[in-house]
Structure formats: structure tokens, C-alpha cells
Specification:
By secondary structure, the protein is of the alpha+beta class. It contains three helices and three strands, in the order αββαβα. It is globular.
Length: 131
């Protein structure tokens, strides 16, 4: 068994449980629509970094971050009761900036393609249609 396999398995379990908990058990209106993008667990299983995205502007994002921080004790207790772990890792939520970066790159690429010159049949690079 490789060194990283246990933290990866625990991360997958935590991600699945947190997704269910946030969807069904946490009733904080400040959380809104949250998507968990990934979970990274430290090799000693003491810390879980949960990366998420949320709909809305900067103010809504900050409101969601505060609501998630308020929910951490409840979520940690629930994870402890649902998963068979000796110690429940500390849960730390981080907004996933990589999604916004990907959207920006995709927008730039679409702009490049939209402004690229189109080639038609009159642009023959071989020069055979010269008159």
C-alpha cells in the first residue's frame, strides 16, 4: 500500500459526508449553494483542508465563509460519529480560487477564437488560384 492512499481514501470519505451534511443537515441560510471541489488530508490525518466554491459575488462569498466556519464544530462531530476514525481531523475551509482562474482562461480563449481571422476558399496557400 502506498503512503498516500490512506489520506486520499479518508479525504474522499470526508468529502462525501460533508456534501451530504451541507445539503441535508446544515440549515444555516448564510451557506447558500456550496460545491465542494476537493478535500486534502494531511499524511498524519490531523488536518483536512476542504476547498469549495459558492455562487454569488464577493459579499456572498464572505458570508458563506463565515457560515462554514460557524458550522465546523457541528460538521466535525458528525464526521466523528459517521466515520470510523481514531481522531477526527480539524476541518479548515478554503475558497477554491482555481475555478475562477479556469473560467478566466476559458473566457480569454473564447475571445481569441472569436476575434481570430477566418479562412475561406480564396485564401489558397499553394498559390495555384492566382490569376
Amino acid at each position: 500500500m502506498s503512503q498516500g492512499s490512506r489520506p486520499d481514501r479518508v479525504a474522499d470519505l470526508i468529502r462525501a459526508e460533508l456534501a451530504l451534511l451541507l445539503a441535508r443537515e446544515v440549515h444555516d441560510p448564510g451557506i447558500g449553494f456550496v460545491t465542494l471541489t476537493r478535500v486534502q488530508v494531511s499524511p498524519d490525518l490531523q488536518l483536512a483542508r476542504i476547498y469549495y466554491t459558492a455562487l454569488g459575488d464577493e459579499a456572498a462569498r464572505k458570508k458563506t465563509a463565515r457560515a462554514l466556519d460557524r458550522a465546523v464544530p457541528f460538521l466535525r462531530r458528525q464526521i466523528g460519529s459517521r466515520l470510523r476514525l481514531k481522531r477526527v481531523p480539524e476541518l479548515v475551509f478554503h475558497y477554491d480560487e482555481s475555478i475562477a482562474g479556469q473560467d478566466r482562461i476559458e473566457q480569454l480563449l473564447n475571445d481569441i477564437h472569436a476575434h481570430a481571422p477566418t479562412s475561406d476558399a480564396s485564401d489558397d496557400p499553394s498559390g495555384e488560384n492566382d490569376e
